[in-house]
Design a protein that fits this description.
- The complex is a heterodimer.
- Chain A is mainly β.
- Chain A is built from no helices and eleven strands.
- In chain A, the strands form two sheets. In chain A, strands 2, 4, 5, 6, 9, 10 and 11 form a seven-stranded mixed β-sheet that branches. In chain A, strands 1-3-8-7 form a four-stranded antiparallel β-sheet, with no helix packed on it.
- The relative contact order of chain A is 0.34.
- Chain B is mainly β.
- Chain B contains no helices and twelve strands.
- In chain B, a hairpin with a 6-residue loop joins β5 and β6.
- The N and C termini of chain B lie far apart (41 Å).
- The chains are: A mainly beta, B mainly beta.
- Chains A and B meet through β4, β5, β9 and β10 of A and β5, β6 and β11 of B.
Amino acid sequence: SAVISQKPSRDICQRGTSLTIQCQVDSQVTMMFWYRQQPGQSLTLIATANQGSEATYESGFVIDKFPISRPNLTFSTLTVSNMSPEDSSIYLCSVRRRAEETQYFGPGTRLLVL
Amino acid sequence: AQKITQTQPGMFVQEKEAVTLDCTYDTSDPSYGLFWYKQPSSGEMIFLIYQGSYDQQNATEGRYSLNFQKARKSANLVISASQLGDSAMYFCAMREPGYSSASKIIFGSGTRLSIRP
């Protein structure tokens, strides 16, 4: 398994501001994924974070709103830009190693935008 | 397009009873993977069990087993001897066809399981 940490674990932010969420893994992983879980909903994939290249965004998510960095094989950040109350969600980092089928999740970041 | 369906939004089960959580999926590709995750109120996603489409036997992990019926495209989770700590949301998920490490996982809508003492 992989040990994944996220910072911050939770935050309350004002609309119009930005928040950067960090994801750290205890070992090198090929792919990192960022998911959003809106209140009472299932998980929705925001983007796949590739090391050394641009992230791949899902339909409905754009780089200007959710810029992602992946500087190495153990770390990634997701920024939620120009926040509105609709961005209030749990944001989850997820990883998969090259040779394994299992995908693991971090503890999540609970974001409340006022 | 791939799709995961969980038809039980909520379930109540007596402690120590077995419980089955339903999951059906839709894909035309013969190669895929199926997952079950548990999400307690803390919000973390806990991996429970995995079944590959070519696996001959149903996956088991402790009290968890996956009833994989390929022809019916169902992957129900069975929890034996339920415990109070099993109360949580449970998500069925499917990895896109193929074995690329970049293939995405899509999630069902989830089932909220509540265990009664």
